[in-house]
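Hi Y.,

Following your request, here is the sequence exactly as I used it, all 107 residues.
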Amino acid sequence: MILNFSLNIRYMEPLTQLKTVLEMSGVPLKVKRLPDNHYTLVSGTSFLRLDMEPATGPDYECSGTLHASEEVAIKAIKTLSLALHADGIEHRIQLMNESGEVIFSFE
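Below is the corresponding structure, written out as tokens. Let me know if you'd prefer a different format.
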């Protein structure tokens, strides 16, 4: 099953500071610095595909797909949301079904 998601983050620190939060979540995302001093998130696995416009912050937006069952996708998104919340990072993550309807939203 392929599920779509969107992720919005408001983060005042450089995006590279998210490294610990991403590691805590266990979701295979990494911060990549681009030559023009913009940052983007990249996926370290094929089950998670991510599209993110490079940005300097503090507002970051991305969308992507999770190639997993609904149960696994919800767990991954919820775990990421909890890690962001624990670090005090404003965010919204929405998980959508194949019809584009939001089935879960975490803030």
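The chain has a mean pLDDT of 84.

Thanks again,
Q.
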